[in-house]
Amino acid sequence: MNTTSNNVFTEPLPVVGFSLFQLAIFIITLIVGIIIVRVISKLLRKTLEKAGAPPLVVGLLDSIVRVIGYVLVILAALPAIGISTGTVTLGLSAVIGLILGFGLQDTWTNMAAGVWLAIIRPFNKGDFVEVAGYSGIIEGIGVMSTVLKTFDNVVITIPNKNVWGAPIVNYTREPIRRITLDVGVAYGTDLDKAINVAMKVIKSHPKVLEQPEPAVVVTELADSSVNLQLRVWVKKEDYGATKADLVKAIYEEFSRNGIEIPFPQLDVHIRDMPK
Fold it and tell me: Which residues are paired to 183 by β-bridges?
């Protein structure tokens, strides 16, 4: 009876060609291998975090290690069910060659670009950037793509090769930013008065930094106005709120002091045509 049970357990199954024992070894190998890969991945992540590696680098390397690890686990488990890893490797090589032949080498380009982005680090997680025609906060770099999230909570996924090949504008890399605010005043305005009022508004705002010094300069004699430009420095996290405050305050103070902010206008002169 025991001999018969052993035979059932060890004899090859119809169609598949391997026994229940081989299948059990295959499954156990997969489970143990997956556990080992996850442990290695976790240790790698902790080591990189203790070493002060940026979150983007940690995430990318963790993804690469997991992908390579799972492939190796599968290759290690296949011989348990009688499949030669040499045959599989040859098959994989043929598939990869076929994929490349059909023009999907962008996959490898994206992976390489992701590695370079992690190494060069033109941005970190949480930075506000403009890249490839999009702007948003960096959520992360994957093996294939970079993820941005806009201020209105829209998630944008950009292939890494497009990020690496495009100019990257990082608005939050430096600790302070300059607010540049343009405002026009009507011709005939006392410019010294307008500049003094603007400076008073700037210096009264608690978020405006004393150094670098703020300034108000005349920039242009435009068609309908004399243009002034307010230049102030703030901490990067105060940029949006401070700019909105200054726009409102300038409008209110100019109105209170009788300084006109003109709208675009066109003078039309009608002349009598000679008869």
Answer: 228
